[in-house]
Amino acid sequence: MREVNxxxxxxxxxxxxxxxxxxxxxxxxxxxxxxxxxxxxIEEVRTFGKNIEIVWDDGVVLHSTFRLTGSWHLYRRGxxxxxxxxxxxVVIAVSDWIAxxxxxxxxxxxxxxxxxxxxxxxxxxxxxxxxDVDIEECVDRxxxxxxxxxxVSDVLLxxxxxxxxxxxxxxxxxxxxxxxPWACASELKRAECRELLLLAQESLIAQIPNEMAVYGxxxxxxxxxxDLIRVAHHGEASRVLYWCPGCQIGHQPLVSPNITPLSIxxxxxxxxxxxxxxxxxxxxxxxxxxxxxxxN
Length: 296
Ligand SMILES: [Zn+2]
Known about the structure:
Blueprint: H1 2-18, E1 25-28, E2 42-48, E3 51-56, E4 60-65, E5 71-76, E6 88-93, E7 97-102, E8 106-111, H2 135-143, H3 152-157, H4 167-176, H5 190-206, E9 230-234, E10 239-243, E11 259-261, H6 275-289
Antiparallel strand pairs: 1-6, 2-3, 3-4, 4-8, 5-7, 6-7, 9-10, 9-11
Helix pairs in contact: 2-5, 4-5
Residues 222, 224-225, 227, 244, 246-247 line the site of zinc ion.
């Protein structure tokens, strides 16, 4: 139990340092398989028992498991490491921190929801971040999505329609086009699909956004309408979705399907403000309330 608590604390620290930041470098000597691309944003840090998972906005997950020894360390850039560099298994650099994994007993990467692994799914769609992508073909793919009840949020992340849109840009382009994230994709007009995809392409090629309109801004005021930005888990891969309920009202459904609201206080929050941290702190409070004596 003591080790599990230590993993929780490590996760809280990693969240504060990494979440919402772009990956500037990723090096993983001890890990084969898919790698998060430089430039993608770290979206979540999750814990299960003695396991820590770091999730990027393109759905790549780095899973690390620890026994009694081994952990993630955080260093400021230029700070001296407390262990030799050649023992580092994974190094993740963001603008102001370097996270280093030492002594994990297992490390692997995978995609949270990888359509290419799905038995009935086909090939990846055109990569929207390419200059020469055929936008009208992408629009066709979006308009003819087989699940007529799918939300626009799910369709934008389905890599068979178009590939390359990560969760950050999904949230941002839906806000920019004032479309409700749970809008039924089949209700969108061709011009609306085209506008979303062109904006996605433009954003991906420019590799903005430096300043987010909704992503990571839960509880803060919308720049357009002043309402408070909300966040929830949504969809097949249960990704974190940010939106403004005040102005993203295009094609708003009568009932919001498959929503897992994350409790976001409107009162000031100290320390780690990420919603995942709220969930964690609630869990910790519950554990304390249950009289678990192994906390220290
Ligand atoms: Zn708004």
